[in-house]
Design goal:
The structure is a homodimer. Chain A is an alpha/beta fold. Helix content of chain A is about 40%, strand content about 20%. In chain A, helix 3 packs across helix 10, helix 5 crosses helix 6 and helix 7 crosses helix 8.
Chain lengths: ~325, ~325
């Protein structure tokens, strides 16, 4: 019997989001429960079992109907071995996640990190549909990425390819959480934007940003749109670095498309106009002209749709 | 009849170097003639014909024995269409190089740029033998690169992937020939090393470099080895940038190996020690530890052996 369905699981620090979908990505049933990460790895694993059972029941399907399960999780992880090595908001420590799921349900199960899963989702169902070579980057608290090369996700030797957030674009730039200086993540992430805003307020600059108790990139975008010059200046500087990051991606991968997702991308035109301007300034013209720079096509459910796409993509091999 | 030989052509601004080899890369016959580039594109094409005929005759082979011809040339070029778009030292202007060769000899013929050809050569016959994912960079007057991904050269959308020399690693760095600022090529190439040396002499710094009429990276390496502090300082600074470039490559590709070739790599330990030190400082530890950084394995004939490797690799598809 031909198996016509897959299950995608978006495993996050606060919730487990699971969906059963057909091979065109149409969701038949979906179930979301809290992760309760503090209860430990076995309990979280059992809650994943619970989500899988629930989406099966709700769709009136059995394991027999399911071609594959895809799981997206924060990393670092080993996609080939199906092991979550560690992650700040989940209790896993070198935990074999895939094996027990595969064994319990007798369904091929695949794991990958959030950024790769989002890249696969964008490639199969989102803005990157139909491309052969594309790079997805997510810009929020951190900066991560995934590359589709010759139609397939590129993982690299230790499953850490596209750690684009930790490439250096300013030799003596600010220190990054990773220990390095001048990383993209320390200069162009949502966190970096919020940090620059807090520094401006601490310096006593005349800005409407001082009216907030807590400053994140969200408030900086909001005040810049209201005409605050300090907020605009911060965005211009941070988005210039994001533009350098995208220009470097284009020079390196010569892709058909760079897709930008994550919280910062919701800033809209101000983000994309600046990034395109910097790319035009810094890239070889023919490569810049051949590459489109676009926002992510999948919305709030991109994590679980990406996991569905992972299941489809891996089981097609 | 099984075809057991290939021909490789290294097309350069001063000479055309051709070899007929077996599928293990053993050269059976080789012929080198001046390019005489100033005579124009048709004359150069005829000289390529002449080299192909000569290596066939010298090896007592005919077109029937040859599986494929591989040609390495400076770019920019379109490998898919077999067209040389333009190149500073050759007379070609959007010249269809491959078609007339294919038609004359009735042998499948493939074209690629120098850096990709060298990467394929290193992968099949050189330091990168047996790797699945590796990046080759050449550091001489310019900085170029080629990536082997899942065992195959990665060309990108417009055949310009791995323009690693034109990635930005210092936002407000010196202007590059490409028009951008702070490119790897403007900071870490042999040309950049020579330029820093000339600037030091012009500033009147106390250094043995002032005893040379013309200063290139060669003299800087030589004087640094003799203990000249200014020369050592220049190398330290430029090789720091080269280290940042390699660290960015590792963060991006997570490769098994980075191979460094080109004139600057002949500097030896001083180059590799510094690059490895910077990578250790800047890269995520697990990725840095999993990636070896090594000198190119092919010597003076790397261009023509790379072209042989291109012929083998493309005709195997």
């Amino acid at each position: 019997m031909e198996k016509k369905y897959v299950i995608g699981i978006d495993l996050g620090g606060t919730k487990i989001n699971g969906a059963l979908a057909d091979l065109e990505g149409n969701v038949i049933s979906q179930h979301i429960i809290p992760t309760n990460a503090s209860e430990g790895e076995e309990k979280v694993l059992n809650r994943i079992f619970q989500v899988i059972e629930k989406v099966l029941t709700d769709a009136s399907k059995t394991s027999e109907d399911i071609k594959a399960i895809g799981i997206g999780s924060p990393g670092p992880l080993d996609a080939k071995k199906g092991i979550i090595i560690s992650t700040p908001n989940l209790p896993f420590d070198n935990f074999e996640l895939i094996k027990p799921i595969k064994e319990k349900f007798n369904i091929p199960t695949y794991l990958d990190n959030d950024a790769n899963v989002a890249a696969i989702g964008e490639h199969i169902f989102g803005a990157g549909k139909g491309t052969e070579n594309m790079v997805f980057i997510t810009v929020s608290t951190g900066v991560g990425g995934g590359a589709i090369i010759n139609g397939k996700i590129y993982r690299g030797n230790t499953c850490n390819a596209l750690e684009i957030g930790h490439t250096t674009i300013e030799k003596d730039g600010p220190r990054c959480n990773c220990g390095n200086y001048g990383c993209v993540e320390a200069l162009a992430s949502g966190t970096a934007i919020g940090k620059r805003a807090n520094e401006a307020v601490e310096r006593g600059e005349e800005t409407s940003l001082k009216n907030y108790k807590e400053l994140t990139s969200y408030e900086v975008f909001k005040e810049a749109k209201q005409g605050d010059k300090v907020a605009s200046g911060i965005l211009d500087s941070c988005l210039n670095y994001l533009g350098i990051c995208v220009a470097n991606i284009i020079a390196t991968f010569d892709p058909e498309m760079v897709i930008i997702g994550g919280g910062v991308s919701h800033g809209g035109n101000i983000v994309f106009d600046k990034v395109r301007e910097v790319v035009k300034e810094r890239c070889l013209e023919s490569m810049a002209n051949a590459c489109s720079i676009v926002p992510a096509g999948l919305g709030a459910d991109s994590g679980v749709i990406g996991a569905v796409a992972l299941a489809i993509s891996e089981s097609d091999d």
